[in-house]
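Example record used in the benchmark description.
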Amino acid sequence: MKTNMPDQSAMTAMLFANFQRIFRCLSFGRSLKTKSPTLSVTQMRILSFFNESDVVHISEISRVLGMSLQSVNNMVSRLEALGYVARSKSLSDKRMSDVRLTARGRAGFQAFRNEQLEVIGELLSGIDATEQRLLSATVEAAAGILEKAAVRKDGAGE
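Model output (structure tokens):
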């Protein structure tokens, strides 16, 4: 029995279009309204690594973001010049650099997070509680599925 499921390329195109719609609604990528220096989306993505760890390695950022080591090094250097991160030689592996968030970096990332929470809060105020719960559950499920797919992809490439 044949189903009416879209083929893989159509599904990919639909997902991409829907992600674009979501990002437009959330205003991710617009500059911060705060007095802090304006950071690029990629710089904010690098700072977001510190949500889960106090120390991050350049190679990990490169792998997860799919960027070259040189590009990540350049971005980290810009963040370092702004005082958002500090770099030091890894104690466990001298070939690697440890990157740590500074107090200024933590404040900048928190300002970005607060701004995005405000945007999301404003959006949610326009829908009823049932729609809010449905949206939350759907996004949580989507995040879990995408994380599982990323783990599988990373595991397959090793």
